[in-house]
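step 3/5: co-fold with nickel (II) ion
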Amino acid sequence: MKYPITVYGDPILRKRAENIGKDTEGLAEIIENMWETMYYADGVGLAAPQTGMSIRMFVIDASSGADEEPELKDFKKVFINPEIIELSGEKWAFNEGCLSLPEIREDVLRPDVVRIRYFDENFVEHDEIYKGYAGRIIQHEYDHLEGKLFIDYLSPLRKRLLKSKLNDISRGKVQTHYKIKPPVK
Ligand code: NI
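step 4/5: write tokens
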């Protein structure tokens, strides 16, 4: 089942999401639905708040980036109750987009290296270090669990220039090839 995607203006995207337990009912099905939703929307990552659930979980499939970074070939992971332990390395800019901010793309500066502790779909704990494109997507998706969006990193000027687009999105006035959940007013 595909979930409709929540967009800018929906308060759930501004909330800190809650940890979940191993015995969360229907967890395997939720994960399956998140994959299905992400692929159909052509995303490389999807966080639970974007599907209307304020829980600490995101999925990433970065294997499409393997042309440029061969180590991404099998990068397909579920991150549950993640915690960023450390960000380090030099900041670099990447033109980011987000399924919750349709038609907006902006250069965002983020540190290169992220150390993250999380549980996988079998509730096995991992403590790993990622950099490059993988580290970038992880930071973007993790932000969704903290109630943050990539536009929060932009300069006041860039933000001002986006204001009318953002207003349109928050009123559901935006074209997407995937189903969105219009923000509650
Ligand atoms: Ni996003």
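step 5/5: annotate
The chain has a mean pLDDT of 96.
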